[in-house]
Design brief:
TIM Barrel, 9 helices, 9 strands
Length: 241
């Protein structure tokens, strides 16, 4: 079995597969708030949580994943969670999906990336939580040494989009500027996305920070939602009415 326990599909047709488990302990992690996709209605998440607590939800096999995605005409699958690269079956999943012409995009902290995974993926969102070692440990509970080594190794692969989280508490604009300089020293063309913590921050402060960071790395941005977001389609687990 894989460590995949949850799949949704967005209006774009893309799917998001949620993998269970992570060895990091990021205090702001969205998955600490809920193990279910944040874009789902609250009542759906409550029903899913009840199923999980009753041990009625099983992890999916590789064949199950392929069947669900093919049935729903998915052409791109995002692997997130959790930390997808911890799943021993991740490469088997990617191989099986590629045989069905389904591309895979991995969302990862980058600690366990390897040459084969990078070559197999359509793209990778590589999250650098902090460049400063003490800050990184404070936020995540782990060292960033291997993360930064892997970022250096794959920065010019053409597969990487960099990401970080602005929390307004520990990770503020000076640290994000340091991350941007690090990225720019390796690949000046790389996109750099800054996400606000789900718990909420002053977005005006964040946008001012982005304008400053763009002086270092012009590709810096954040997602902005200008219209009501539609709920994704729940592909797995299924729930009753």
């Amino acid at each position: 079995m894989t460590r995949v326990y949850h799949i949704v599909q967005f209006d774009s047709g893309d799917a998001y597969l949620t993998f269970d488990g992570c060895t990091w302990n990021c205090y702001y992690c969205v998955w600490r708030m809920s193990r279910w996709n944040i874009c789902l209605p609250q009542e759906v998440k409550q029903k899913l949580e009840a199923l999980w607590n009753s041990k009625s939800i099983e992890f999916l096999s590789v064949d199950d994943i392929v069947r669900i995605l093919v049935k729903n005409n998915v052409k791109k699958a995002f692997f997130g969670g959790g930390e997808p690269t911890l799943d021993p079956e991740i490469k088997a999943i990617i191989r099986a999906l590629k045989m069905k012409d389904i591309d895979v995009w991995i969302i990862t902290n980058g600690e366990h990336l390897d040459d084969e995974l990078v070559s197999m993926a359509k793209g990778i969102t590589f999250s650098i939580k902090a460049l400063d070692k003490k800050l990184h440990f404070r936020v995540t509970g782990v060292s960033n040494e291997r993360v930064l080594d892997n970022f250096r190794k794959y920065a010019k692969s053409g597969k990487i989009v960099a990401e970080t989280v602005y929390d307004g508490k520990y990770i503020k604009c000076p640290e994000i500027a340091r991350i941007a300089r690090f990225i720019s020293s390796l690949n000046k063309e790389m996109s750099f996305r800054i996400d606000p913590v789900v718990q909420g921050v002053n977005l005006e402060d964040l946008d001012r920070c982005i304008e400053e960071v763009r002086k270092i790395l012009p590709t810096t941005y954040r997602w902005k939602i200008n219209s009501p977001r539609k709920f994704p389609k729940l592909l797995y687990p299924q729930i009753g009415d």
